[in-house]
Write a structure and sequence with these properties.
Layout: H1 5-14, H2 30-39, H3 50-63
């Protein structure tokens, strides 16, 4: 599995010095955060409200010139 402890450890070994691994999860994943903390020197959870994500996604689409599928 991509986010399994062994895969995270492999990802760390492949990062360049000063590099970062960013992981997105649709919901909180305490087990994943624990595994990240074991594999990396630092790991933090940054929670965002689902509505805030939706607004940001829509803004990104508009900035790229992609409008909604409705008028």
């Amino acid at each position: 599995a991509l986010y399994a402890a062994a895969s995270l450890a492999k990802s760390r070994r492949r990062l360049r010095p000063g590099g970062a691994l960013v992981v997105w999860s649709a919901d909180r994943a305490p087990g994943l955060l624990t595994d990240l903390r074991q594999a990396f020197d630092e790991a933090e959870e940054v929670a965002r409200d689902k509505w805030e994500r939706y607004i940001d996604d829509m803004q990104d689409l508009y900035e790229r010139g992609v409008g909604p599928a409705w008028d």
